Amino acid sequence: MPSSSEPSLDKSGKEITTVGFARFGFDSEVSLDVLRSLYLRAHYVKTVASADEAAKEADRDDASTSYLSKAIYHADTKSISYTTLSRFPPVKLLPPSQRKRILVTGGAGFVGSHLVDRLMVLGHEVTVIDNFFTGSKTTVSHWVGHPNFELVRHDVVEPFMIECDQIYHLACPASPPHYQFNAVKTIKTSFMGTLNMLGLAKRTKARFLITSTSEVYGDPEVHPQPEDYWGHVNPIGPRACYDEGKRVAETLTYGFHRQDGVDVRVARIFNTYGPRMNPFDGRVVSNFIVQALRGEDMTVYGDGKQTRSFQYIHDLIDGLIALMNSDETRPVNIGNGDEFTIGEFAELVRDIVAKVQKEDGVDVPRVNIVYKPMPTDDPQKRRPDTTRAKQVLDWQPRWTVQMGLEEMVRYYKAKMVEGSL
Ligand SMILES: O=c1ccn([C@@H]2O[C@H](COP(=O)(O)OP(=O)(O)O[C@H]3OC[C@@H](O)[C@H](O)[C@H]3O)[C@@H](O)[C@H]2O)c(=O)[nH]1
């Protein structure tokens, strides 16, 4: 199990022991250690050499492993024997009046799985629908079988019926190589998927939150980007399936709001990173960390002068939950204002990987930074104006990029040990 020798500190230097907060009558605070026990570890108990040892290990049940998977990794054959969980992570006991039935589309993805962890630990009933195109069952497998949890393989482009109180509509590939892989399917997911989920919200009177994106601002001519900026998007470029898809999804959302009175929330998410991000999804944070850990060249696209502002996953989940439970129906940017050029960011990731390796006593050569062609229509700059989130949600990011990156490096190191990276 990876361990960090130092505590995680927030932007003001205070130790982070919990994430979430009570806002708008909804308490989302949970212990960081509980969440970490779900993502910052290998998903097996320990490695064994023989079948005999494996059988003994599977029988073992003590406090330290009580809510860890009993799956065993066999180093000699590079295989895992899965077992069912002996005990689930503890969840709050909520009175029925406070317990919500929550649908999370795309709940097996990177962002979705962290939202699911939080909502489950808080004691709600969670149903995940996912087609597993970019999501993976392993991200939520620790909840499968729990009475408060249901996992359904379903593609949102088809209608789905369920009784629920809140819908977090996340389903859509989000990494540029993934969403461009099948552009028609991406825009179909944004349009048909959102239409179906809004129809469900209308029928059940559930509150509906859609995760839109900073990409609705395109290659922005206003910097930083406030919510009332209309954007600068190429409607026929390779990114259009996602940018325009999310823009039409927002249009649909406000159509249902005005015409049918659906209670809507729109989050515009800026670049986000953290554990469970697919190491091969082609985004900059996962690429850079994996390259530095493997001792490969780090690939900066273009001259590296384009900028991005990176937010850690827990800040995003705090923002999404606050928005869902607030009264704010206008779009709200959720992102971190710490802006880097991609060239600077490559150096930062390289230094952080070296620091973590040094702490773990691993001696690694310094990797090189190389330059590759710039993808078409790659936005030149991006930084959220989060004034609205601060005013209406009392939300602002707590995690420094350094702290978040260290945790993500440790997560990827655990995956390397497991052999899945
Ligand atoms: O290996 C790499 C990967 C990416 N990059 C660059 O790093 C920057 C960030 O690229 P990413 O692919 O991580 O993310 P992008 O900002 O392009 O898109 C993201 O925007 C916001 C979200 O809604 C989406 O998840 C995602 O589309 C880009 O300028 C890209 O060209 C590199 O320099 N090297």
TrEMBL record:
* Location of the protein in the cell: Cytoplasm; Golgi apparatus, Golgi stack membrane
Name by which UniProt lists this protein: UDP-glucuronate decarboxylase
Checking InterPro entries in the record gives: NAD(P)-bd_dom, NAD(P)-bd_dom_sf, UXS-like
Keywords per UniProt: Cytoplasm, Decarboxylase, Golgi apparatus, Lyase, Membrane, NAD, Signal-anchor, Transmembrane, Transmembrane helix
Tell me if Cytoplasm is a UniProt keyword of this record: yes
Query: What are the residue boundaries of the NAD(P)-binding domain, all occurrences included?
Result: 103-408
Identify the pathway.
Nucleotide-sugar biosynthesis; UDP-alpha-D-xylose biosynthesis; UDP-alpha-D-xylose from UDP-alpha-D-glucuronate: step 1/1
How does the entry describe its membrane topology?
Single-pass type II membrane protein
Family statement drawn from the similarity comment of this UniProt entry: Belongs to the NAD(P)-dependent epimerase/dehydratase family. UDP-glucuronic acid decarboxylase subfamily.
**Domain of life, per the record?**
Eukaryota
Enzyme Commission identifier(s): 4.1.1.35
Q: Name one GO biological process term.
A: D-xylose metabolic process
SUPFAM superfamilies to which the protein is assigned, alphabetical: NAD(P)-binding Rossmann-fold domains
Q: Name one GO cellular component term.
A: Golgi cisterna membrane
GO MF terms held by the record: NAD+ binding; UDP-glucuronate decarboxylase activity
Question: Is Cell membrane one of the keywords UniProt gives this record?
Answer: no
Q: Which cofactor does it need?
A: NAD(+)
Catalysis performed (reactions): UDP-alpha-D-glucuronate + H(+) = UDP-alpha-D-xylose + CO2
